[in-house]
Amino acid sequence: MTTTMTGAPIPGAPVRPRMSPRRRARISRGIQYTVLLIALLVLALATDWHRVGTQFFNLDVARELLHSIPNAFRNTVVYTAAAFAVGLSLGMLLALMKLSPVRPYRWIATAYIEFFRGIPALLVVISFGFAVPIALGVSIESLTLKAALALGMVSAAYIAETLRAGLQAVPRGQVEAARSLGMSQGRTLATVVIPQAFRIVLPPMTNEFILLTKDTSLIYLMGLQVSQYDLTKVGREALNSAHGGLTALFVIGAAYLLITIPLGLLARWLETRTGKARRS
Predict the structure, then answer these.
(1) Please, what sign has the CA dihedral across residues 224, 225, 226, 229?
(2) CB 157 within 8 A of CB 116
(3) Do 151 and 215 contact (CB within 8 A), yes or no?
(4) How many CB atoms lie within 10 A of CB 220?
């Protein structure tokens, strides 16, 4: 609408129709779809599909890898489970120490958590592979045990903070009700507080398991025999070959997704279930 300098409409001037917000949004989506289609068309025309087929999805290289995948997949799951067992046990101990009324326990737990959260997991893996046996004069023959200790000690620092938050999130009334029934402090902690805390922290703990699965890719630094290869080591060996291009990357990536996607779905399901339980 045409207006005067003071903002008032001029009598008799033509009125411009205003576009509704819904129509404006529809036009905006149409423009975005058009831009996307043009970009995809340009990409499709500019791509050398024969080269993509030989370098990214080479079926011969994929077939060569398939015989190594089952054992590497099993090793990856075993390394992850062992490290998670160490991380969960140590993490629970650290969480309880951090909530302890005894101040030195809190200091020790805080120092451990801050130290292992502050250094790269790569450094810890190298230390357990080479420096720790020399420094302490011990020999750890089992690769699974070395991997579990190295990755589990780093993971424990993160799990401890997650568990501490879960323990503090348990309603105070639950503890008081248990104590009023005559339960000791230890029994209240073991039968009331810890089970409820685990229910609260299950989704983030699932995410921690996923991160630990990917951290097993560092184990190759300890030196592996062929039977001890994890998925990443198998992929590295294939990528170092002169043929196949990046096919191994996609094959190994798909194998990792077989582990992480179900865990991600489980985390979302637990998150939804925990949220409903809290609201009810």
Answers:
(1) negative
(2) yes
(3) yes
(4) 18
- Give the per-residue SS3 of 100-148: CCCHHHHHHHHHHHHHHHHCCHHHHHHHHHHHHHHHHCCCCCCHHHHHH
Q: Within a 10 A sphere around the Cβ of 88, how many other Cβ atoms? A: 20
Task: Identify any residues that bridge with 3 across adjacent strands, giving them in sequence order.
Answer: 9
Instruction: Tell me what pLDDT residue 94 has.
Output: 95
Residue 164 and residue 84: Cα distance in Å, rounded? 17
- Asked if 188 and 165 count as a contact pair (C-beta separation under 8 A), the reply is no
Beta strands in 199-256 (DSSP E): none
Task: Give yes or no for a contact between 27 and 15, defined as CB atoms under 8 angstroms apart.
Answer: no
Q: Tell me which of 69-83, 89-103, 141-155, 172-186 is least confident.
A: 172-186
Closest Cα to residue 61, out of 250, 259, 257?
Answer: 250
